Amino acid sequence: KKTDIKNAEQSLQSVLNLWRSLPPTAISDSSSQQFQKILGIHRIYYKIREMTQKASNEVVIMASKIDLAQLITYGVMDEITSIIDNGVEVTIITEPECDILSIENGLNIVYCSSVSGSLPQLFLMDRKEMLAVTDEDLQEKETRALWTNCSSLCDAIHLFFTYEFSH
Questions:
Q1: What crossing angle do the helices spanning 76-85 and 41-54 adopt, rounded to 10°?
Q2: Cα(45)–Cα(123) distance, rounded to whole angstroms?
Q3: CA atoms within a 13 Å half-sphere pointing along the CA-CB vector of 148
Q4: Sign of torsion, CA 104 109 115 119?
């Protein structure tokens, strides 16, 4: 048994030495870019409010009239009003017949017609993180969303918005 313990300690040292020899960037990069599936409308809007509170430069929202009404119901528009007062630029891309935001001040509202009939619900904060609300999960019977802080995906979405909806 003493020999087994000694062999285990020696193999532990070799594993630790191998672990220490890994480049630090390989470890830190893998944990910094994340994807997360969020289930449930309450969790989704909690995450959107959390993202909005952290925004410091720019917020881009694509949402239909119905989705914008939910933003008001879940308190997201209150957060948006607050960050506008702090100098954050907010752009909302929505349907042409949407009049729900006519009373909001400081919003950059872009009206677009959707080819498929309804706009996807998407949130992009400071080009650092985004959340896309997807269809209902058939197994879970809940609304679901995909959140990510993947910089290349956030940059691609921002470039699309800049190209497609620039004035």
A1: 0
A2: 11
A3: 14
A4: negative
Provide the 3-class DSSP secondary structure of residue 100: coil
Helix (H, G, I), strand (E, B) or coil at 54: helix
CA–CA separation, 42 and 129 (whole Å): 19
- Count of other CB atoms within 10 angstroms of residue 165: 15
CA 115 to each of CA 100, 112, 118, 164, 166: distance values in angstroms, whole numbers, following the listed order:
21, 10, 8, 14, 18
Residue 92 near residue 77, CB atoms below 8 Å = no
How many residues does the structure list for the chain? 167
Output the CA torsion sign for 154, 156, 161, 162: positive
- Digit-by-digit pLDDT tens for the chain (167 residues) are 889 888 888 888 788 887 777 766 544 444 578 899 998 888 999 999 999 999 999 999 998 888 888 888 888 888 888 899 889 999 888 887 777 765 556 778 777 776 566 778 899 999 999 999 987 655 667 889 999 999 999 999 999 887 776 65
